[in-house]
Amino acid sequence: MSDSFDVIVIGSGPGGYVCAIRAAQLGMKVACVEKRDTLGGTCLNVGCIPSKALLQSSENYAETLHAWKDHGIMVEGVTLDLARMQARKGEVVGANVKGVEFLFKKNKVTWLKGAGRIVAAGKVEVAGIEYGAKHIVIATGSESMPLPGVTVDETRIVTSTGALELATVPGHLVVIGGGVIGLELGSVWRRLGAQVTVVEFLDRLIPGNDGEIAKQFERVLSRQGMKFKLGAKVTGAVASDTGVVVTVETLKTGKVEDIQADVVLLAIGRRAFTEGLGLAEAGVATDERGRVKTDPHFATNVPGIYAIGDVIAGPMLAHKAEDEGVALAERLAGQAGHVNYAVIPGVVYTAPEVASVGKTEEELKAAGIEYAVGKFPFTANGRARAMGATDGFVKLLADKATDRLLGAHILGPDAGTLIAEIALAMEFGASAEDVARTCHAHPSLNEAVKEAALAVAGRALHI
Ligand code: FAD
Ligand code: NAI
Question: Residue 267: CB within 6 Å of ligand 2?
Answer without folding.
Answer: yes
